[in-house]
């Protein structure tokens, strides 16, 4: 079987799951303009999975947009610079339990079953290609190069301002889902205290677009000890950097990946159901006390170069510039670099999100809802948004911004509220289902009165006639000129009804009519035999 045959198989299997098929959301209008049920912002792996999930729930009135050109949604062809994913190759999630839609099914048809057996993790570019196929096989209506600029509350719903190449489009939506990845609840950026007085051409963040060819022959400094730090160091070395020094503040190289421990159904599916104290303690340990290490491949990739060195206990405390050179000081060392890369992660900061500019101060953060025990404080975690059960923002002051329940944050910022779900492949299986189920619940409950009125007016009879089957069939076919035209009047359900009626219309085997008929046939066939015998005598 080829990938094209697999595509046909997926589409056929989805028809087996087409129940209930009814599209059920209630159309709404604002100023005569149709209102979307859902606007999905971001078409990376999360956004694509959400779009498919909405379709499975028969929510068809949605749009999905992404600011990047096709194929560059998400990090995989931009700032993700690893050679292979660290995620186990067996991971599932956006397939929603359809086996032929999994990355394994696609990979085996693309490269062969033996090739699947030879890998432990999926190459980065291969994963991106799988997402491209996933989008196509499901025919998801992604609109590329469309950017969300601003969200404006409007009478209980939202007015989204979208920037397109031809200008600004304004769209009304009942629900908006922010599936904008790692930076969706804040920003990437170098520490302001270190770079405030430096020229912009002296440094970059690991998430920036970096031309590594320009680093050839230069002394490179990298701050950080995680996967992105080593991935960027490897690319700089491979591009011909004169020397790369990787510095970090911890006394030892991180070696244990706490995210791997999290990969079990209880943690992935029900972290959001824990108490605030439990969630705080888990995430404080995972995000601050036990940081994610580089992969073994990334570490070895750097160690191949003699001009690479890593330095523990070497957090940078001060940087200044002299003659185009960055002079870096730590507690016990000094460096001079031609260029620096800050692999310092993402900072939770809703004020940095332009789309939330009108109301970010009304959104509850963890510091507004929870006070940690003494000695367990964390200013970084306290800035994370405090989300509801379906990833919706909540009000900082209850009753002041009820519209926030329609705005859902499926980004890295959901980590403290819902665990590894909004920006990680391993958590998508549980996070997307929780989100989509919450969306469907809200859309239904908000229109309960409308559905009740529809029920009261429902008059479609299931008992089609009180006549006998013979009379009903006669009336049904009286206007038909031939059998074919008669058959064309019947839908699938009527055919089933007709078949059942014909079966029930047959006389019962033990009925007097049947017995009498059989007796008559017996008498007619036996009489000539008796007459013949008499003649012989």
TrEMBL record:
Residues 518-537 have a biased composition (Basic residues). Pfam families: Pyr_redox_3 (PF13738). Gene3D superfamilies: FAD/NAD(P)-binding domain (3.50.50.60). Residues 505-537 are annotated as: Disordered. PANTHER family: FAD-DEPENDENT URATE HYDROXYLASE (PTHR43539:SF91), FLAVIN-BINDING MONOOXYGENASE-LIKE PROTEIN (AFU_ORTHOLOGUE AFUA_4G09220) (PTHR43539). Keywords: Oxidoreductase. It comes from Bradyrhizobium barranii. It comes from the Bacteria. InterPro entries: Auxin_biosynth/cation_transpt, FAD/NAD-bd_sf. This is NAD(P)/FAD-dependent oxidoreductase.
């Amino acid at each position: 079987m080829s990938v094209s045959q697999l595509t046909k198989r997926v589409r056929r299997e989805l028809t087996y799951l087409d129940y209930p098929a009814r599209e059920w959301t209630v159309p709404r209008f604002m100023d005569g303009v149709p209102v979307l049920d859902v606007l999905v912002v971001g078409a990376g792996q999360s956004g694509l999975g959400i779009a498919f999930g909405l379709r499975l729930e028969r929510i068809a009135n949605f749009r999905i947009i992404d600011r990047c050109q096709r194929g560059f949604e998400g990090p995989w062809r931009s700032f993700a610079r690893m050679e292979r994913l660290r995620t186990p190759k067996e991971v599932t999630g956006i397939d929603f339990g359809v086996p032929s839609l999994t990355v394994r099914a696609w990979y085996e048809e693309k490269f062969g079953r033996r090739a699947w057996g030879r890998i432990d993790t999926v190459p980065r570019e291969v994963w991106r290609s799988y997402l491209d196929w996933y989008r196509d096989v499901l025919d998801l209506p992604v609109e590329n190069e469309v950017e969300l600029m601003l969200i404006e509350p409007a009478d209980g719903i939202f007015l989204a301002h979208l920037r397109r190449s031809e200008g600004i489009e304004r769209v009304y939506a009942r629900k908006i889902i922010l599936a904008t990845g790692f930076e969706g609840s804040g920003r990437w950026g170098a520490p302001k205290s270190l770079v405030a007085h430096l020229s912009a051409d002296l440094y970059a963040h690991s998430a920036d677009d970096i031309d590594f060819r320009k680093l050839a022959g230069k002394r490179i400094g990298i701050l950080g000890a995680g996967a992105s730090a080593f991935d960027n160091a490897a690319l700089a070395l491979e591009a011909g950097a004169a020397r790369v020094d990787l510095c970090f503040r911890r006394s030892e190289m991180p070696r244990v990946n706490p995210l791997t421990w999290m990969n079990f159904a209880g943690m992935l599916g029900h972290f959001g159901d824990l108490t605030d104290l439990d969630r705080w303690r888990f995430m404080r340990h995972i995000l601050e006390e036990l940081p994610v290490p580089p992969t073994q491949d990334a570490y070895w990739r750097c160690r191949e170069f003699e001009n690479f060195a890593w330095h523990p206990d070497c957090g940078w405390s001060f940087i200044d510039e002299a003659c185009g050179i960055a002079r870096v000081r730590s507690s016990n060392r000094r460096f001079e670099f031609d260029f620096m890369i800050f692999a310092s992660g993402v900072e939770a900061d809703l004020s940095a999100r332009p789309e939330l500019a009108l109301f970010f101060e009304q959104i509850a953060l963890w510091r507004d809802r929870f006070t940690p025990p003494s000695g367990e404080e964390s200013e970084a975690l306290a800035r994370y948004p405090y989300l509801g059960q379906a990833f919706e923002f909540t009000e900082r002051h209850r009753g002041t911004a009820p519209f926030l329940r329609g705005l859902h944050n499926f980004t890295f910022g959901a980590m403290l509220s819902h665990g590894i779900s909004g920006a990680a492949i391993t958590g998508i299986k549980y996070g997307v289902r929780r989100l989509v189920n919450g969306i469907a619940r809200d859309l239904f409950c908000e229109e309960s009165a409308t559905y009740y009125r529809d029920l009261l007016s429902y008059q479609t009879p299931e008992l089609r006639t009180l006549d006998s089957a013979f009379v009903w069939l006669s009336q049904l076919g009286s206007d038909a000129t031939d059998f074919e035209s008669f058959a064309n009047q019947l839908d699938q359900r009527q055919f089933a009804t007709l078949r059942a009626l014909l079966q029930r219309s047959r006389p019962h085997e033990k009925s007097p009519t049947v017995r009498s008929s059989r007796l008559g046939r017996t008498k007619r066939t036996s009489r000539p035999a008796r007459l013949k015998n008499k003649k012989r005598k």
